[in-house]
Amino acid sequence: MSTDPLVVFTPSGKRGRFPVGTPVLTAARQLGVDLDSVCGGRGICSKCQITPSYGEFSKHGVTVAEDALSEWNSVEQRYDDKRGLKAGRRLGCQATVQRDVVIDVPAESQVHRQVVRKAASTRAVEMDPATRLYFVEVDEPDMHEPTGDFERLARALRREWDIPAITADLSLMSKLQPVLRKGKWQVTVALNKGHAGDTPRVIEIWPGLHEAGLYGLAIDLGSTTVAAHLTDLDTGAVIASSGIMNPQIRFGEDLMSRVSYAMMNPGGDKEMTRAVREAINTLAEEIAKEADISADLIVETVIVCNPVMHHLLLGIDPVELGQAPFALATSESITLNAREMDITAINDRARIYILPCIAGHVGADAAAVALAEQPGASDDLVLIIDVGTNAEILLGDKGGVLACSSPTGPAFEGAQISSGQRAAPGAIEAIRIDPVTKEPRFRVIGSDLWSDEEGFDEAIGASGITGICGSGIIEAVAELRMAGLMDENGLMGSAEATGTPRMVPEGRTHSYLVHDSTDEGGPRITVTQGDIRAIQLAKSALYAGARLLMDERGVDKVDRVVLAGAFGAHISNLHAMVLGMIPDAHLSKVTSAGNAAGTGARIALCSLKARAEIEQMVRRIHKVETAIEPKFQEHFVAANAIPHKTETFPELAKITTLPSPNFNAGSGGGDEGRRRRRRG
C-alpha cells in the first residue's frame, strides 16, 4: 500500500500527507497554513504564490525530487506572460502535489503578513484587517430557484470562503445587480468582518477581479494637529502621510477652553464638531490625491483622540468632561458608518472604528500609545510620555500600568510662542548656542545643513527661515540654560550681565536674538521671556504628571523613558533632560517612539486581534486623575525651575555642568542691579 506524499510548509513548519494531485493551496488550507488567495483558486489573483524547495532536508526528514510538483501549466504561463512570476515561484492553486515536497510561503503570500514597526521596537503586527477582498462566482438567476442576487452572493461567499452570513446597506444593494451582470457573475467584494461577533458587512463590490487595491486611514486626532496615514490593507504599508492644523484651535487652544466655549455658547459644541469633521474630509481628500488613488478605495478608518476630541468628533457635548467626576458618555470602542459622522471624502459605506478611552481625561490616543509601546509587557519600569497639547503619560511594567493626562498646552507644538510655527519647511528645528561666544547656530526643516555651514543659504533658498517650531523652542530654552544666558528660574540676563549683544531689552525683561533678516524683508526671530514662561508651564505640567505616577507606584526613578508624540523623534534627549521635561535617567535609556498614537491607530487598522487586545488592556490600566490630586500642584511648582528646584538629576550631572547665574527680573539683570536694590 502506497503512502501519500508528505507536504511540509515553511516558515510555519506545518506538515501533512495528501493524495497525489492535491493542489498546494488546498493542502495549505487543510493544514491551516497562512497562504493567501482572493480568487478562490482560479489562477487569476496570484496571491497564492509559493516556492518549492528541492534536495535533501534532514531537519524535515525528507528528500524532495525535481518532479515533486506537477508540471508548469498554461494558467501559470499566462500569468507569467502577463505580469511575471519571480524565478522559482509557482501558483499554489495550480501546482499539485506529486511527491514529498517542502514548500516555502513567501511573506507577500501570507494572509497575516508581519509589519515590523519602526527600528526602536522589534514588535511585529500580524496583518489581519477587518476589511478584506473576496473574489466569488455567483450563481446566475434561475426562474426555478427564485432567490435574489444578494442571497446568491451570500451563498457564494458561504460556499467559497466559509463566510456564514453577510449584510449590506441599501446603497450597496442599489449597485449590486448592474455590477454582477457587468462582471458576468464574477465579482470582488470588500467585506468588513468586525471583531465583536457582528455579521460581516459588504462595503463595496466590483465586477470581475478587483486589483486596484484597498486602503484604510489611521488618524491621530490631536488638539492642535490632525495626522493621517493612508495604509494598504493588503500589506500594511503606509502609502502616504499628511497632517493639518486642527481648526478647533480658533475656539480655544487647550481642551478646557473648548469645553468652556461649548458651555458659554449655545450650539458651540456642534460648531466644533462640524469643524473637525470638515478637517478630516479635507485631509482624506488631500491624502488620496497625493497617493493618486480613488477616495472610494478608502473603505475603513481608525481614529484615536483624547476624550474631549472624542466627544466633539462624535457630536457629543463635552460639558461633563469639564467638571468632576469627568464622566465620559461612553468609554467603549465604537464602530459606525462614515456617513453617520459626515465623513464624505472616502467610500460612502466605509466603516470607522474609534479605540476605547481609558478614563475621562485619558483617551483613545493613550490607549493607542499603550497598544504601540506595550508598557504592560515590559520587564523594566518604563515611563512613556506622549508629548502634545494634552500630554498622555503611562508608567508600567509587567506588574501593572498607570496612566494620567497633563494639560501642557500648545507651547510644545510651537503655539503661544512669539516666533512659533508648526513644523514646516523653514522652521528652526534645532539650535546650539556657543557657551563662550554666546552665538547661535541652527538647522531648519528642509535642510540637513547648520546655519554656519557652507551652502546653508542656498539649501534653504526655497523656504527661507520662517520661525521656530516645537523641537526648536525646547532646544533653544535648554541651550540658553547651558550657555549661562538664563538662570534656573527661567530669567534671562541683560547684554551687560551676559556679555552678548544678542540679549536685547524688551520692557522690563530681555530676549535672545536668534536670527534677524528684517533687512531682506524676513522675520526677526527671538526667544522672549514670555516664550520661556510658556515652556516652563508646559514642561512643569508634564513633569508633575510623571511624578504623580511615580508616587503612586512608590518609586523615585524609572528604568526607561520613551518620548512619543508627533515631534518626539526630533527632541534631543539631552535638551529634554536639561529642560526638566522628564525625570532624571541615563540618556541611553531615553528613546523616541515618534507618533506612537498614530502607530497604535495603524496597528488597530491592520489587526482585528489588536483591537480585541486593546479593549481588554484598557480595563487593566489604572487611571490617576491629576485634576484632583493635591500633590500635582506641589510637583508643578517645584518643576518650574530648570531643570528642577529640588531634584538633583544625578545622571544629567554626569554629562554636563549647568552654570549658576542669578539674574534679577526688573533690573538690568546683572550684579549692579541687585546692589542698587539692596542699598535701597
TrEMBL record:
User: Which residues does the annotated region (Disordered) include?
Assistant: 658-680
Q: Which GO terms describe its molecular function?
A: iron-sulfur cluster binding
Q: Where is the 2Fe-2S ferredoxin-type domain?
A: 5-109
Q: Which InterPro entries match?
A: 2Fe-2S_ferredoxin-like_sf (IPR036010), 2Fe-2S_ferredoxin-type (IPR001041), Beta-grasp_dom_sf (IPR012675), Corrinoid_activation_enz (IPR052911), Raco-like_middle (IPR041414), Raco-like_middle_sf (IPR042259), RACo_C (IPR027980), RACo_linker (IPR040506)
Question: Where are the bilayer-spanning segments?
Answer: none
The molecule here is called: Uncharacterized 2Fe-2 and 4Fe-4S clusters-containing protein, contains DUF4445 domain
